[in-house]
Recover the amino acids of this structure.
């Protein structure tokens, strides 16, 4: 629980209301307005939640000015250099780094859930082949509620635990199946002798008629992408999962809601949008035209992969991702890729441009992840599904934290009504 040491006084309309100020472990103090409506008959107004803490959490901390991201207190740079995705999953879910024995047990629990119910294969076949893999994922993950009845009772801690493990284990399988289905290739079953990232690459790129050997460096880069995307505090999709979960909806339905929210281009869809933008720019000489458009208030165009609601200095994930991009492109020998040249030049120009400096717009994680994924052979439509499978552990950890909190309430914001005042119905003949 956050500590209360001071109060803020709000004076209006001859009323004076004392509001407790809560001090977090890190980050700005928070004014507790829970009793404001009862005591003052007023709401607060904060569209986009730019000044609102929606919950108490112990999972992830971001300092946007310092460019700091901590999972359970550990800096993302340390985890990216020394840890691996499944260890990070354990950390996010249970709060501590695992011992060796705990890690072996966790790995075996996840590995034993990687296959999906065979009936789900037929479910996939109901989609059009040209469906976006995110559309397929929203549907299939939501449909997991219909396949795994024994882990949908949210009042049972054991069922919540099984649902969490099932989702971490099966999301890569579902994302790979969505990909295979969209390109008309047979589904590849998970291989439990491979590590988490290698297994995902194998399910995406293996075919029954020849061997596919996963390159360790690519598996490492994929594992790092997963770690960097694993959680990010109360972002739009995580808040969506919490809001859906606050009504008591089952965890599969809640994660499907998170996937739907992540899909938007202002959020997880930015990696696809960013690469499509680089393709549209095409050549270095066209960059100034796009920079001009990004600055033009009358043009809705934005430089995708730039800017962040919280990071106003740099995105620490982007720094690590940039290193990975250099490694992967070096390994695959794609230094002269025209898209990469456009990306590098765009980054250089934008970082020197007064507009971007003044508005604190830096390349975000999505600017580099798309470049890596494209070099690995993924189509742009798979970028956001990979983000979704990586974020699943964050969503489920946040969902579990919320359900475990005895103070949990249904999320129910109020509004500032600006529509018509009460009026009488008029018969159609008098309108
Ligand atoms: N290109 C050009 N101008 C931009 C950009 C951009 N990418 N991002 C913000 N701006 C400008 C806005 O026009 C605005 O200018 P104004 O003050 O003159 O009106 C100012 O910067 C602030 O922009 P907001 O939209 O108010 O900032 P907000 O914090 O709400 O938005 C967001 C953050 C949505 C990420 C935004 O920067 C954006 O749309 N970026 C492109 C999409 C993107 O890359 N999203 C990925 C985010 S990371 C992630 O989800 C993993």
């Amino acid at each position: 629980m956050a500590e209360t040491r001071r109060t803020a006084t709000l004076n209006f309309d001859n009323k004076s209301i004392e509001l407790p100020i809560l001090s977090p472990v890190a980050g700005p103090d928070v004014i507790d307005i829970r009793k404001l409506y009862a005591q003052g008959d007023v709401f607060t107004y904060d569209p986009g939640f730019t000044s609102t803490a929606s919950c108490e959490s112990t999972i992830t901390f971001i300092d946007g000015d310092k460019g700091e991201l901590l999972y359970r207190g550990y800096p993302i740079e340390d985890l990216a250099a020394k840890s691996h995705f499944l260890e990070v999953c354990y950390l996010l879910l249970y709060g501590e780094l695992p011992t060796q024995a705990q890690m072996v047990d966790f790995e075996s629990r996840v590995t034993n859930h990687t296959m999906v119910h065979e009936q789900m294969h037929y479910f996939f076949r109901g989609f059009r082949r040209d469906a976006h893999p995110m559309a397929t994922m929203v549907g299939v993950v939501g449909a997991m509620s219909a396949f795994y009845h024994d882990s949908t009772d949210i009042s049972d801690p054991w069922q919540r635990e099984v649902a969490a493990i099932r989702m971490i284990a099966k999301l890569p399988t579902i994302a790979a199946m969505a990909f295979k289905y969209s390109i008309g290739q047979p589904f590849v079953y998970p291989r439990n002798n491979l590590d988490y990232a290698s297994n995902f690459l194998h399910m995406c790129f293996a075919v029954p008629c020849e061997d596919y050997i996963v390159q360790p460096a690519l598996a490492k880069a994929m594992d790092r992408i997963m770690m960097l995307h694993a959680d990010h505090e109360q972002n739009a999709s995580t808040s969506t999962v919490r809001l859906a979960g606050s009504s008591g909806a089952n965890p599969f339905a809640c994660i499907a809601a998170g996937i739907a929210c992540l899909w938007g281009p202002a959020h997880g869809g930015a990696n696809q949008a960013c690469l499509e933008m680089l393709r549209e720019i095409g050549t270095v000489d066209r960059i100034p035209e796009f920079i001009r458009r990004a600055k033009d208030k009358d043009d809705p165009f934005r430089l995708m992969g730039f800017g962040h609601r919280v990071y106003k200095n740099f995105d620490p994930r982007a720094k690590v991702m940039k290193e990975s991009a250099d490694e992967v492109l070096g390994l695959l020998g794609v230094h002269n890729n025209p898209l990469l040249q456009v990306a590098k030049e765009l980054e250089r120009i934008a970082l020197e441009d007064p507009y971007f400096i003044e508005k604190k717009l830096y390349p975000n994680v999505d600017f580099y992840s798309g470049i890596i994924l494209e070099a690995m052979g993924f189509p742009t439509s798979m970028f956001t599904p990979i983000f979704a499978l990586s974020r699943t552990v964050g969503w489920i950890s946040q969902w579990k934290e919320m359900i475990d909190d005895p103070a949990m309430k249904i999320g129910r914001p109020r509004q500032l009504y600006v529509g018509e005042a009460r009026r009488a119905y008029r018969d159609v003949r008098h309108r």
In short: The mean pLDDT is 94.
